[in-house]
Fold these 4 entries.
Entry 1:
Amino acid sequence: MIELLFGIFIGAVSGLTPGIHSNTLSAMIIVYSGYLLNFFSPEQIPIMIFSAAITHTFLDIVPSVFTGVPDEDTAIAVLPAHDMVLDGRGVEAISISAFSSLFSFFLSLPLFFIFLTFLNRMSGLVDVITIYFLISISIYIIMMERESFSTSMKKKFYAFSVFTVSGILGLVALKYSHLAELTPASSVLLPLFSGLFASPALITSIVEESRIPEQKLSSKLPGVKEVLTGSLSGSLVSIFPGVSSGVAAAISSAGSRKSEQYISTISAANTSNAMLCFAVFLTLGKIRSGAVDAASKFYFEVEALIIAGALTSLAAALLTILSGITASRILPRLNFTLFSSLVLILLTFFIYFLTGWFGLMVYAIATPIGLSTLFLQVRRINCMGCLIIPVILFRAGF
């Protein structure tokens, strides 16, 4: 039980720390695994890692909602969540996310066992269709820009341009990612996603002199359709090599129009993906996430993972809602323009500290690309080309 509590604790800390991805957490666990073995048995550490990874997918919505600073998994949710905060519905956004992740975990349990039973028969097919799958997703994301015919065609062109430019930046950033990996906690995805999704939201708040109104203590259950869509998207993406949960978020939210739908589908996709990456490893021996990479160094059993995940999900949902309520009581008392300015400055220093000059350069180039979606009035999801295009090209051998 102690390993479960410790996993929940470190997952909560990483989830509540703006900009930190669960892969960073997993890298740190690997680095200090020798020290951890003084306190935990080799069987306890993978349970801790799994618990931390699941907890992170719950609590990482809190900094995305209230500070506008995302990690890869919550990047697309920043603007919709930001809008709900400005409407006084920040706690409601948090509750939707918490319940979506909770329901997604239990909905994904049957998929977990289906993967264990049938996935090994599909391993060859998965490698073959990965590129075609991603190309189809790219077309779908761009074609979702719909208005009158003339305006729609123009919007699709703008969306294609943003998608392509983001992809070129992502390709360069990932190709030279070693220049940004200064410590085990470093990742080039931090400046990339912060520039595309976080800084535009913060800059907009500063320019418009936004204020956080008093937040209502309200909650709302997610729609069944959104949770199912997110869970299925997360499970689908966990199968394919080189496709991250950020892409799962893009797939699951591509058809969403309301803020609540975005948040629900993204949260469900992230939790489902984090869980089912372990099923893929157990079946195919393939590593699809940093958490699985860390856990793969140790022996673990399916039954122990499922029990740990169920208990973790219940605890993490409660922690997420309590954290959201706490943040909603503190932030409205602050000058939000000043707060956004400080967060933007701290984010910039944080990026420089973790990723150096190369990360800062990626961040500086990504920010105007992210801002362009506001001026062109296309959805921010098109910036997910930064991951999808590089994966397509890498899989094609370029």
Note: The chain has a mean pLDDT of 80.
Entry 2:
Amino acid sequence: MPCLALVLELHHPLPSPGRGAGPEWASAAAEVFWPLLRALDAFADRAGDASITLAVSPSWSALAADPAARRLVRRELEKAPHRRKDERPLLRFFAEAGGDPLALIRRWNASGAVDAIPTTATHTWLPSVATDPTIAGAQVGLAAADHTARFEARPSGVWLPFLAYAPGLETAMAAHRLRFFGVSADAFLRGTVLPPARTLAPMVTPAGVAAYAVSPPPGPAVDPHAGYGLDPRYADPKQAPRAAFDHAQHFFDRWAEEAGTSPPDAEPPPEPISVVAISAHDLARAWPHGGADLWLVQLLERLAGAEAIRASSLDRHLARNPVGVLGRPAASVGGLLAARPAGSDLFDRCRAAADLLAFALERRSTFSAPERESVAGMLRSLLRAQQVDWSYPARDGIDPDEGLRRASAHLACFHEHAAALMSGRPGRPRRGAGLAFLPGLDPDDAAVG
């Protein structure tokens, strides 16, 4: 039976250093995230044997967990006039959930309908920084540890930002007991081996971690210029449900056809799988006037009710299909931003800082509690310096110059922590700590070996 694997990604940039959540988060949460959460809640109630994968970034989790950020979201939802008639039920859903999206995800994860996994610790172009084992271990290990603490369950896999991959990353994944990741279909097919099933089955890397090929969405769902969301029916509350029904059916039919059709030169696997990943950010761009949640509800209904095809999370599929061809995808570097963000030497500076961090991590077992606190501060600052999610959200993107200023501030904080450690005055808290990002950070979780 062919398998459809939907990966829905939740991410939002962190605020600038020392700041809490702002109006950008409140707006995105009220207009994008909570409507999608409501759609997922309806799916979890009727999923049956169907399941999907939910990739949640530690940045999103930090904002979602913050009490002040939740109050901002409530006030945003209470504002009038409302853009759609169904926003009052959305406010009731928010209230019934206690304004806590993490509790919802914990419940869905426990039910098996939604397999929640993290992205890496920060949204960065991994090939540019993860060639350093210290950074790779921190990005993967700290994300897994934070996810375990937030959702009370160890994740089974990790999702790579922008699907950007560098060979060797799977070593850090295996060290932290993560079993799978996704890469773009073109990187998958350019790897060390051409899989007999092409993109319809995972390959297993030498480290024992499975790589899944992620195909572009089969319909124009996330195309902001020619997508479903440009249908004028979405502007009419009476016609919007029918538009969502039509577009979800079109998307599902094309996706099912692709999953059930093997390339002529391929060997069909026992359970062919087609993986499609969609971020909440992309849905917001593709539905500029709202309606993405209506479409998602309709798509999830088809996944839950499918009979000739199976909707499965990647974790469940891998449990049923643990054996695959041995190989490794090719690097997926991601363009000029991967090398020099906005023409800067940011990643060179991050790699240089990682040398100092590696020296501290090697000696972590001999450190006192205040010294370990300084190392934790170094880790957190270096990870935040690597963020290049400047295009999020679409309407309020961060100017590249501002993004570089923030990165420089984080690197300055890194060196302050390092200086405090080396001077024998470690662990001094910084004023204006801002949002609690990776609050339980343990340097041991960053180590690969």
Note: The longest helix spans residues 23-46.
Entry 3:
Amino acid sequence: MKSNYLSPFVRFLQEDLQLPANSIQLVLRQGLSRDALPMLLWQYGLIDLQQLDRIFDWLETR
């Protein structure tokens, strides 16, 4: 993943969705493509469906 994508995305997850840094790190360690990250967050139970929708909306604007 490119840092120009990751840094704003992580900031969005932490500031807007209030996800703890350790939860985000858990998903990032999987080394998957950026497109897989939202689904992985949801599958791990770290976000709900409303948050998943917000992530997809955010990604569409980028």
Note: The chain has one domain: 3-60.
Entry 4:
Amino acid sequence: MENITELKEFLSVPKYISIISHRNPDGDAIGSSLGLYHFLNKFGHTVRVMFPSEYPAGFEWMEDAKKILIYDIEQDDVKDTLERSDIVFCLDFNSLDRIDKSGEIINSLTVPKVLIDHHLDPEPFAEYQLSDITASSTCELVYRFICDFGEKEKLDETIASCIYTGIVTDTGSFRFSTSPRLFRVVADLVELGVDDYTIQIKIFNTLNEKQLRLLGHCLARRMEILPEFQAGIIVLNKKDYENYDIKRGDTEGIVNYLLMLKDVKVAAFITEQPTIVKISLRSKGDFSVQEIASKYFNGGGHKNASGGYSFKSLGWMIHRFKEVLPKYKEQLLQS
């Protein structure tokens, strides 16, 4: 961050600070927000964390997670909090439309905004920006922000555990988006007391029976393999959501099972929700799904993990994805 000295001076006296991340928050959104929250609290600031929608129950173990404000549930509280803020930190998203109505409120504020993010093409809405698409996660950038802030000694086990959570989820337990720089960060976090084994157990080994049965249903009855494109698709319709009483977080990670197949390089998880159809895309190796998400499905993300949506039908979304694949056939076979 180029103007970190100016920002540090602004925060040299206690402020009312809001931290916000994107709709459908994942481990990186939650970990980066809570990590920064615990760090800023050390300086006597009043800090509030908020998301547009609820986070998966599997992250409730994180310290102060239950203090997070949810716009869908507490609209007035979120609005009042944002309007009281002296500064707003925007984490793990690159445009204000990723935070829905909250984005309109933030856009109207005259207070400084800080963007910390690792997605492509960030919109220029923030006065302070730490954006790096080579970073594994926004949590890695929060760690860098703390170091650049000149307060690395303020890192403790609580902050480190939050940061580790976002790193391990966004890298798929260190399967992608890694670098020597990242592993040096992780080594520092473990030295601070992070119990990496226990955190991974809490994140990945806490399914309930319904979620495991849903996974079995997806693999047995909703999976289609397209060998000519080295692609796989899993589809859930509205009836599936009703039959399995699917809630937020229940489908987390299902798309990744397709990539366990030796000859599948690109995976799509398509879900029919009440007013929208969503597509989650994952890939192996050098093949990028970011272009597919942004060009054809109103979305974006990262090289190996992106997503999009449509207000058209489930059938349209499935057909459209299959229609797009031939355009990338040569690239898939070479990657």
Note: Residues 209-334 form a domain with the Diaminopimelate Epimerase; Chain A, domain 1 fold (CATH 3.10.310.30).
